[in-house]
Amino acid sequence: MACRTICQLLQRRLASSATSVRLSAAEVRGRRSAVFSREQARQRSLYPRTEKIEVTLQIPGLQGTLLVMNKGLSTPHSCARHLTEWYVTSSALALVDGKPWSLHQPLTQSCSLSLLTFKDTDPLLVNQAYWRSCAALLGQVLLDAFKEDFSVELLRLPEVLVTSGAFCCDVVLDPQLDAWNPSEESLRSLTRGAQQLIHRDLPWEPLEVAPPVALEVFSHSSDTHLRCVFIHVYGTHTHSCLTLYLSLRCGDHVLLSGGPLVARTGLCSQYEVTAIHPLGEGKWGLHRRAQGLSLPLQQQAHHTVWRKLRSRAEKLVEVPTGSTNEAISDTLTLPSAPEQTPPHTPQQ
Amino acid sequence: MRLTIQMLISHGRVARKMGLGPESRINMLRNILTGLVRHERIETTRGRADEVRFYAEKLIDYAKKGDTDEKAMKMANFWLTEKDLIPKLFKVLAPRFETQPKAYTRMARIPNRENLDKAAMAVLEYKGNPFPPLQTAKRDNELTLINQLLKGYREQRAQQARQDVL
């Protein structure tokens, strides 16, 4: 009996020390991407035979057009490709049976489809999705920007209203960088990194995953606590552990998101990282909020207007944090820590 | 004067020739101007509309002086062939444009006339007329991304202005 408890204690201690071994950022990315690809392949293999589904289009001018597509393989993007090139380039989000649906997510049953653009009469969903995508891009740029010696952890991508003026991304940088404040030159180089990503026109591949898989994707993060909070922040707004999380891959990076993102990075045209504000000491170090401003290809602004919007985006954006998030994350960090011992015991 | 070839070439000459001669031109413009004052929106050829604009605005400037003014009354009497429009000019049109310093008319081009001459046509109107607008300014949807950002910007500016006042 005593032997067993000692063994368990040893396992937990050794497991925790295994997770605290710092893997290089590139390796972490590669592993996350590998898990993502594995899960994607598994979900595709759920449909071994190509079955057909009927998709009715609800686009102005093409009401009631019926498309026969493949189940589990065809995406709204492939439906748009059956129409004209304009639909492919201009559509940012899709509405499947009234639900917002990412353009690259496969369709699983016969449904009605409508493609949303930035110039619709009601582009609220598209605007919100675009803001989320720009925040995701900002997170990706920050992860890539620093040297290998410094660790960068994304805390969360808060849901901000478009009228607040800027999208935000909460990060925690390496403790060695606590005294660092970004200068204009560093912000400009971050902007350049973002512009390079935009120029590569990478698609955001979505994947709905179950919580254990999501935990596995992020299991190689350097700090278990960060990972748990990151996941539970997105779990709380649905208040259920059985919901699927939307995981997205862009290039090599995998991240979690609170809702669908737009189709690809090439849809952004004007993009600038405007500021990085320190938020104060939090549980995992100095929290910082990186903010940016962006406009899509179809809605470019004149440079005078852009300058005014940018000066507003430099100011700190207050994000209303729900108190439930913190409470639930505190109670749920403890049970999830032992969950991690099974994946790591084989290493010993 | 010397009868040169240059006299036949009209490069850089801005004054238009209309009708049979200068007097005919003035008479024609007078008729068009009377029609404009009566109906407040008329349709003519482009050249005539452009010419009348100058005289229409000058007439309003004279009307603003008031009907007791000797010169203003003489001008109104000359330019308006239908004399029942003189009270309309002084009592309706002049008060309408009291606050504006200039630009009382608006000209919009329309498709060519259907007749054999296919003349280029235009619509000339006094601003503030009771008819529905000629051209509505195409405004982008209020809910687009850039308009939402600008709305937030304007609200913030208004809030700051209010805080500065306090």
UniProtKB/TrEMBL annotation, chain A:
Residues 321-334 have a biased composition (Polar residues). GO terms for molecular function: nucleotide binding. Residues 320-348 are annotated as: Disordered. InterPro entries: Beta-grasp_dom_sf, Thr/Ala-tRNA-synth_IIc_edit. SUPFAM superfamilies: ThrRS/AlaRS common domain. This is Mitochondrial ribosomal protein L39. It comes from Oncorhynchus kisutch. The gene is mrpl39.
From TrEMBL, chain B:
The keyword Ribosomal protein applies. It is found in: Mitochondrion. Gene3D superfamilies: Ribosomal protein L17. SUPFAM superfamilies: Prokaryotic ribosomal protein L17. This is Large ribosomal subunit protein bL17m. One of its GO terms (biological process) is translation. The keyword Mitochondrion applies. PANTHER family: LARGE RIBOSOMAL SUBUNIT PROTEIN BL17M, RIBOSOMAL PROTEIN L17. GO terms for molecular function: structural constituent of ribosome. Keywords: Mitochondrion, Ribonucleoprotein, Ribosomal protein, Transit peptide. It comes from the Eukaryota. Belongs to the bacterial ribosomal protein bL17 family. GO terms for cellular component: mitochondrial large ribosomal subunit. InterPro entries: Ribosomal_bL17 (IPR000456), Ribosomal_bL17_sf (IPR036373). It holds the Pfam family Ribosomal_L17.
